[in-house]
Amino acid sequence: MDGYDLTVGTTVEVHGLISEAGSRFNGCTGVVAQINKDGRYVIKLRDSSTQPVVKPCNLRKASPTCPDCIEVGDLVEITGLTSERGRWLNEHLGCVMPGAVIGRLSVKICATGQEKAIKELNLLKHTKEVILERAQGLLEKGHLYDLQRLLRGLPFVPECLSEALTARLAEGTHSEILGGTLKLVDISGKGKGYRTERIISAGEALLFDTAFCSTYKGPREYHEMETECKKKTERKAVADFFATQVMTLASGPSMMRMIESQLISILKTNVFQTIRDPDHVALFPAVSRFNHSCCANAFADTSKTQATVRALCDIRAGEEVCVSYCPVHAPRQERMEQFFGKGFDCNCERCKREVQEDPQFLVPCKCGKHSFSAQQNAKSMQRCPHCSLDFLKETSLGHLQEVEEMNAFMRTQAAAAENPLNLIETLKPLVERVIEGSCLAPKTHNQTIQLLNNFSGAHYFAATRVPGPHQSASFAASFAYKKKVLRAQATNHGQGTCQRDMNYFMSTEC
Fold this sequence. Notes:
25 strands, SH3 type barrels, 15 helices, alpha+beta, 5 domains, five-stranded antiparallel sheet, SET_dom, N-lysine methyltransferase SMYD2-A (Histone methyltransferase SMYD2-A) (SET and MYND domain-containing protein 2A)
């Protein structure tokens, strides 16, 4: 009998309703979202937010000949999600699983294996043949970024297609500007660089690149990459790419070029440690055309074989897109040291500000109305214009040195073997010098942050490993100081960028 063998998630058609209000639903299809205690079915209609409650006698399974009906086991593509979390799932393929919830179907994402609850109106039904036809078209057009995303996790990819994709990527000559987002142009005072062709949304993928060469990070990394380059250029197609796309990249200062080959100089200027494979360095010719900024609006997500550049924020049309060549949490002087030998000095807005006032060396006055500076070019003795409190730079730096020595101790086996309660008492005097209300040491210096993180960790281990009446207070202190750490870390990453370095995420761990 129609309706009486239906379960949540089954696609159904409404029929036989005779009331004026109900008859308008006759012929509509949807999915069973819920079965009420009175035996009626809540139906989530397709292309409508209305959810009529219908007797089982007025439902029947939707005709299997209907091409749009989505059933358990169907291959679907996720589309049209607009929320901050949901939009990352758009264009992903998945398989409809049993266990639908109210108004949504359970979809197992092919690329990750995770199950997500998705509204049916955000799902497009596909067949294996349609997907493989699309994949072949992407390969022929050279859209390898989209092809990789399409095939990731699919169980039915033909071996010939997989091998063709792998071979194209392994050449190291492929790159794509994605979605018409960018254009390589001349940038005044910088040489080449990328500007946006349209308005860009935060998180949008801008460029995909493959590594022309890569190797393990070490003392001979540039010479090993030079050898790899020469071996690759034995093929004419690769040799042409090498001449036009690699050898035209910026090289180091002229003095450096006099004592080493041009290729080595180019590699030293453009090769960077990869994010996902931190023991490797790689050369990405297209990514190398992005200019640097310490307050970058884009980020290069790199492995030893591939790189994807994404927008860190919304970017206006015509604006230059920059990435950071170094960890952005570092003080200005440390950042400048990493550019030595690369043929440029950073003069971004952040660096201009921090020449005068580096936030990592600021020490707030007790009155809260003024900040002293302990950076190199600051005066040795300073006085608050509001409360007349005197500040000695050398004394502040001395406190910072003690903090650094304590952090070094916390990395030893002796500290690891110590009772966490004893560590708390050892750390407490130094912590009191760097928290709010004290004007003895910089509050957001990397060493200060490390001290606070150590203090938070000591409280966490005291709460979880040492029984006693202190546990509740230690838990609270652990989270309170962890918040201080994250606030200070965010300050150190500078104004004008949403980038967060690995140390920021590592500091969230206890």
